[in-house]
Amino acid sequence: MTNAPAVSCLGTSALLFEAPGETTLANQQRIWALSREAANWPEIREAVPGVNNLLLSFNTPPRCLEPLETRLLGAWEEAIALPLDGRVIELPVVYGGEGGPHMADVVAHTGLSVEEIVAIHTAPIYPVYALGSHPGYCYLGGMDPRIATPRRKIPVIRIPGGAVSIGGSQTGVSASDGPSGWNTIGTTEVCFFDATRDPPVLLQPGDSITFRVVEIRK
Amino acid sequence: MMRPDDLTEVAAAMRSAGVGRLELKGPDFHLVLACGAGDAPVATEVALAQPDAEIVPVAAPGLGTFLRTHPLHDRPLAGDGEAVAAGQAIALLRIGALLTPVPAPANGLIVGALPEDGALVGYGDRLFDFLPQE
Amino acid sequence: MIEILSQSASASIQDLGRFSAVRWGVGTAGAMDRLALLCGNILLGNADDAAGIEAQVFPFEVRFDTDLAFALTGADCAATLDGLPLLPWSSSRAQAGQVLRLGLPQAGRWRGARTYLAVAGGIDVPVVLGSRSTQLRGAIGGLDGRVLRQGDRLPVGPLPGTGIIAGVMPPGLALPLAADELPAVRVLPAAEHDAFTGGSLARFWAEPWKITPQSDRYGFRLAGPGLEPKAPLEVRSHGIVPGVIQVPHSGQPIVQMCDAQPSGGYPKVGTVIDADLWRLGQMPIGTRFRFIRVDWNKALAAREEVEGWLTEVRRVTALLRARRAA
Hints:
The complex is a heterotrimer of chains A (about 220), B (about 130) and C (about 325). Chain B is mainly beta. Helix content of chain B is about 10%, strand content about 40%. Chain B has 1 helix and 11 strands, in the order αβββββββββββ. The radius of gyration of chain C is 20 Å and the shape is globular. Chain C is about 20% helix and about 25% strand. Chain C has about 325 residues and is α+β, with helices and mostly antiparallel strands. Chains B and C meet through strand 7 and strand 8 of B and strand 12 and helix 5 of C.
């Protein structure tokens, strides 16, 4: 962690801005504000928020980076946290059973029972910090550290879309089939991405998720 | 007219003299012997031309640097004495970043190229002597 | 219409990429060698972003169901049309019923790994989120968001009518780049560059890297001297671009390529510059290559060199088109 914001480049394709200090919701709300501002700059093709950071891709790389970096740091200073007033979407989840193949590993690591883990997992409102990883996938904040479980040593080649998982101190839901190194504890049937819709995603930064127990399977 | 034994002798003589290509013309024949590097000399194509057959020129379709070999390849598009199909690219003209093909005017044999490889040629310059065949 | 005859399932429809949906978690996809696809489109008189077919596994065969001009660029595959040899990096005309066959990439004066088939009018699949490129995760774009299969019949767009029959000097020969006689790509250091030990960084820049068999459109896993962080590194999930060189715990770098997920949480030592991604995308498995460290100005100069070369290709194409019309 640094005490000052950091700006670096990703080749000549993009700038990456890292907010200083610990990862917080307050920082993330300022990242959303910064993203909204920078997305309108003429040099910028797209503003892509990450977890307490922001990727700004170029239409054409500028001849000189310093003026843009200065403007970016200045905009961060001015950035006022956008309120967390998006939609709250409730996801119905079947915990454990076939759709939660790694529930036992979370039990083993935390020492908690399945019922306790489900109660802790379904309690918070999880803000959507950013989208990334795969179409419609949300990086969520707010997981209770009591159910944190390290990422798996050997990732699973194919976890289905809808898989509800815990990776380290984070939780998330896969939006489509793909590989995952997280611990899958349940499954939901919500559709997170539809390319034919505008916007194509169900959830955006500033929205929030809650998990509701449909069933706990052994 | 040459007999097969004569051809073998001529080919052997070519090889020892280091002659790569020999062209003989008579009133009713046209013979091209091509001797490749390395192995035994080989008469690649023997053309017993019709009495009224003619060598035709292949002219440059435009300006450019004359290339018999594609820049990615080691061997020419079409070697001397080689039979080619109508329209087949027998050379390239390089103009800056582009390479325009020089097509064979008919089915036939490449007799020989006139410009050096890499020479700048202009529109209409004679690039090849070509022997059309059915 | 073009019909896919081959059984191998690794060819896909790609254009220059999908660049404005990264904030939705949608990666860029697109041709691994954009320069090659672009050259094919220029020869055919297509729009720059017309979609073509990227072939990665050979032999690969298609049949033209209609008369059609097409171009083959990228790796030289000793291609034939109804058995007659075609020149690499060139456009040609096919008649209805003719079969195009791409053989194995040839070991010539420049060797590639992927070949691009562009057709006059482009492959006419729907534009999704601004591009026709195939994004496998999420089944977006291309033909139903998947790799091409035997029997697929692909529609072709309206003919531009402005193509020429000609070849292009392969950029691998026209724009050579090497370090100590090995092919090379230029890299700008990334945020965590200085977090690695000086010794391991010196080896990263000075020694050859090998492209392992575990390399594909998602990423190129490299084998070589390991990179060691000075202290354990924690990196938050952030947006990335193709070319980012990630360093997982093993210390063996992975260069993120076109189908990489658009965000990552691994330390990054550098980014292969966009202007050199085509070079890397064309290196076959087993290639030994070098990274060349550059600064911002040198990276921009590399980009301008490629743009300048493309301008030249367009210029002479227009010249030849005008001459033919006259």
